[in-house]
Amino acid sequence: MALQKVEEAKPLPTPPWMTSYGDLVTQLLVFFVMLFALSAAATEDQLKKIKERIDGYVVQHSLSSFVSTQMSQKEGLIITFSEKYMFDPGKAEIYPEAKTIIRDIMTLLLDDPNRITIEGHTDNTPIRTAQFPSNWELSTARSTSLLRFMLEDLSFAPKRLTAAGYGEYHPVVEGNTPETRAKNRRVDVVVKRLDIEEMKAWNAGLSAAAKQAVTRGIVEVKPQTLQ
């Protein structure tokens, strides 16, 4: 008995609505990718503007030996204060002269909503005192001193601030020379990048403030135009 040839099933044509749906999904994907890229660029630009303001202050007052800034892909904007201009060796009380400079610089961050982490760092010279049994306690006390100053003297929102102490375990340079140790003794103020929701909320607040300013201006100018 001859075997009958079985015809191969032909694929059904794609319904027109599926083509349109696929195009829509692709367009939405492209839109959200572009939105994410624009938001990321906006947050990066915001940090760069903060950096420019601080760098301008540092140059104007010849403070490059005390304050430096750098952009970190992982962390955000890092503002570094050298320990030798802030504290006595083995102490955590900020010099009054340093407070004046820190006040001026930290004021440049007040109007921005970014979260801030204050990180204390020491060198690898051991410390063992009644107040600070190790560099962990010393580095944490120094970061907390700066946090307290920002809260009490500058009225930073508490929810924006975090303090941490890293002891000698996050050096910026390796080595045991006086120069390398001096570089590692520092306090880093890390200004975090805004996420998309934080950026949206901040922009909405700026828009609302601008509208209020315009409204106040109209109200103040209007009586004068009637005279």
Q: Describe it for me?
A:
This protein has 227 residues and is of the alpha+beta class. It has one domain: OmpA-like domain (60s Ribosomal Protein L30, Chain: A), CATH 3.30.1330.60. The chain is 49% helix and 13% strand. Strands 1-2-5-3-4 form a 5-stranded mixed sheet. A hairpin with a 3-residue loop joins strand 1 and strand 2. The radius of gyration is 28 Å and the shape is extended.
Short description:
The protein is 49% helix and 13% strand. With 227 residues, it is an alpha+beta fold. It has a single domain (23-211), classed as 60s Ribosomal Protein L30, Chain: A.
Can you lay out the helices and strands and say which pair or pack?
Blueprint: H1 16-60, E1 67-72, E2 76-82, H2 96-107, E3 116-121, H3 135-152, E4 161-165, H4 178-184, E5 186-191, H5 196-225
Parallel strand pairs: 3-4
Antiparallel strand pairs: 1-2, 2-5, 3-5
Unreliable sequence segments: 31-38, 223-227
Mean pLDDT level: 86
| Rg from alpha-carbon coordinates | 28 Å
Largest beta sheet: strand ordering: 1-2-5-3-4
CATH superfamily: OmpA-like domain
Tell me the count of domains: 1
CATH class: Alpha Beta
- Tell me, briefly, the overall form: extended
SSE arrangement, N to C: HEEHEHEHEH
Largest sheet properties: 5 strands, mixed
CATH architectural type: 2-Layer Sandwich
**Strand segment count:** 5
CATH topology: 60s Ribosomal Protein L30, Chain: A
Report the span from N to C terminus. 112 Å
The number of helical elements comes to: 5
Q: Strand fraction band?
A: 5-15%
Based on secondary structure, the structural category is: alpha+beta
